[in-house]
From TrEMBL:
Gene3D superfamilies membership: Protein of unknown function DUF952 (3.20.170.20)
Classification of source organism: Bacteria, Pseudomonadati, Pseudomonadota, Alphaproteobacteria, Hyphomicrobiales
Residue ranges that the Swiss-Prot or TrEMBL entry lists as coiled coil: none
Lineage: superkingdom: Bacteria
Pfam family, one: DUF952
Species: Propylenella binzhouense
UniProt protein name: DUF952 domain-containing protein
InterPro entries referenced in this protein's UniProt entry, alphabetically: DUF952
Amino acid sequence: MSELVYKICPEALWREAEAAGRFAGAPVDHADGFIHFSTARQAPETAARHFAGARDLLLVAVRPGPLGPLLKWEPSRGGDLFPHLYGALPLAAVAWVKPLPLGPDGRHVFPDLGEAE
């Protein structure tokens, strides 16, 4: 699969990952035993559902290929398949990182997720 997957992450937590050279996950990821990702279609709902009103977020775009078999597609809400990473995210798999600001309506403003890396 060549389509990017996305992680919504507090900026401070991502800066720690950059310093460490890998992202081991957010507290919710540790609790669930895997790193949660979303597809481009799923990311806005994920932001609204789990990060409503949160500031200082980043959107991390990840190439699935380098993650190999540690990335699994599993059913979640409504039976939709979500990408879950069973291991740390190597920063080499990251295509880009962009701010995820709040718009005037209080919802997060996403960059164009159809763009190439």
